[in-house]
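pinging the channel bc i need a second pair of eyes. not urgent but kinda urgent?? the chain im working w is below, pasted from the shared doc
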Amino acid sequence: MQEQRVLIAGCGDIGTRLGLKLAAEGAQVFGLRRTINQLPDGIHGIAADMADPASLANLPECDYLFFTAAAKSREPGVYRQTYVDGLRNLLAALPSPPRHLFVTGSTGIYHQHEHDWVDEQSATDPTTDSGRCLLESEQLALHSGIPATIVRFSGIYGPGRDHLQRRVLEGIAAPAEPLHYSNRIHRDDCVGVLRHLLQLHQDGHALKPVYLASDDAPTPIHEVMEWMAEQLGVTITRREQVRRGGSKRCSNRRLRASGYRFQYPDYQSGYRALLQR
């Protein structure tokens, strides 16, 4: 990859792994986060808080900007501060506009709950404060005057994201009724999707304003947990609802059509390596 200056704002797990990949390919990568002591070599740390405009006074010029912030809690105020105020403050502090802005969003903005298929053209009328904040953040990016692309990730799993495994190890699985579809994407595919879209832009392809990023196989959550219990040799002893948004099925057709190929196209391939660890 030609020498590019990339700023990753909210440089957590996904941002760090993306940054390392881009740095290895020749990019100059800046990682913005509140504490930078955990950033690995290869990423130039910028200690700043996007909720505090004064801390953003000396941002570097960049060719590409990734906004990969993640709220620390589901409190509405925290969501607004992270996804709306944080992005607004960041954009206002840029010394010059980048060539392209990438924002990681969520399928939590969809309100559909009757096992509907959803894609980038589906209506979005979120019923929660967190969903409304995420949708407002999307609109802020798309109307910023900077060419922007939103990537709506479904449920991210992978190393360090083991909530479901822990429930299963306790002998808990979701009930078969009411039916509830689960949509997932492995952490490594989140990184892969962002890298793929950046490469498309660098190669001169026009990007869509929104991509839905989820694996090939929406699956009822009870099936995922029962399969996991079988792999772990655990007997399910109780059924509990897994608190999630509405039951829907996410289509990745647009992302697939762009040429992306999933490392983990379904939950079995993704979880198998995790469970073996």
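so The two ends are 33 Å apart (CA to CA). and DSSP finds eight helices and 15 strands in the chain. — does that match what u expected or am i reading it wrong
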